[in-house]
Design brief:
alpha/beta, eight-stranded parallel beta barrel
Length: about 290
């Protein structure tokens, strides 16, 4: 289904979206090898549209959907992480059959806003995730010791963990220690601050039974992953250098026992050279066979 048909369905037959979620073919969260490769598409809802210096690279929804459909159609891609608007589009396109689907929950901390660190839960709720038959929810949990908005984010994240766990659903927490400098929020990506973020995030909620972490690939990742027993997916980020260096870093990270796969958005959807399928195939081999590029 192309974009024009999606708009027609939304205008005339919106009930078809609910019906399609109810009839979607699902799969186990984790396959036989215990690894996951998820494509991330929740950046736009936070106003984060840039890729390697192009501030509006993700501005075209039709282009983004084409790239997502290509990625999800490649063998070995387990699923997608996104907001309701993107996931509903992909659902109508038939791209989510037999895929793991994770709903992004807090998108209120808009990129560059004065309230960026007061990251309200404005997208999926645990109730909506369960009703649609999604497999879990993801929270962005930035921790800034100088910003009072952090405590609201921590509390809301804890409530989300509880609500998802009560439904037997994955709660994926993406934590960062962050600072605000010159009206800009920066995540601290050194090992020590990443370890602190891991411990803070791991303690959120009344149970950790269904909690997973989503962590950046940082230096001394062995020390970072030694800070938790929670299953951990590694963040692909928006690499600006040589893709070969990025793939090598992913390969080293995935060799660690606690690593359970990758969640990658811009690096796969907007690779240098533009070949989405080729970039996805490299990531698939890294995640599911351990093969180096």
């Amino acid at each position: 289904m192309d974009a024009a048909k999606i708009t027609e369905v939304r205008a005339r037959e919106p009930h078809r979206i609910t019906e399609a979620w109810a009839g979607r073919r699902r799969r186990p969260l984790v396959g036989d090898d215990g690894q996951l490769l998820l494509v991330a598409a929740d950046h736009p809802a936070r106003g984060s549209l840039g890729v390697r210096g192009n501030a509006l690279a993700m501005g075209s929804r039709t282009d983004l959907l084409d790239r997502l459909a290509t990625a999800l159609g490649r063998p070995g891609v387990d699923g997608v992480l996104g907001t309701p608007d993107v996931l509903d589009d992909l659902l109508l396109m038939g791209a989510l059959e037999g895929k793991v689907v994770i709903g992004s929950m807090n998108r209120g901390g808009l990129q560059g806003a004065s309230f960026e660190l007061d990251d309200r839960f404005t997208a999926y709720t645990a109730e909506a995730i369960e009703a649609a038959g999604l497999d879990g929810g993801k929270t962005l949990t930035r921790i800034c010791l100088d910003d009072p908005g952090t405590v609201s984010t921590l509390e809301a994240t804890a409530h989300a963990v509880n609500a998802l766990a009560a439904r037997g659903l994955m709660a994926m927490i993406e934590p960062f220690l962050s600072v605000r400098t010159d009206e800009r929020v920066t995540n601290l990506l050194d090992p020590d601050n990443t370890i602190k973020s891991v411990h803070i995030a791991s303690g959120l909620g009344a149970t950790s039974a269904h909690t997973w972490l989503k962590l950046p690939v940082v230096d001394e990742l062995e020390r970072v992953l030694d800070a938790t027993t929670l299953p951990t997916l590694l963040l692909g980020g928006d690499p600006a250098g040589d893709p070969a260096d990025t793939y090598a870093a992913w390969a080293r990270a995935l060799s660690l026992p606690a690593a359970r796969g990758l969640v990658v958005g811009r690096a796969l959807l907007y690779p240098p050279g533009g070949d989405v399928g080729a970039a996805v195939d490299i990531a698939t081999k890294l995640v599911h066979t351990g093969a180096r590029p």
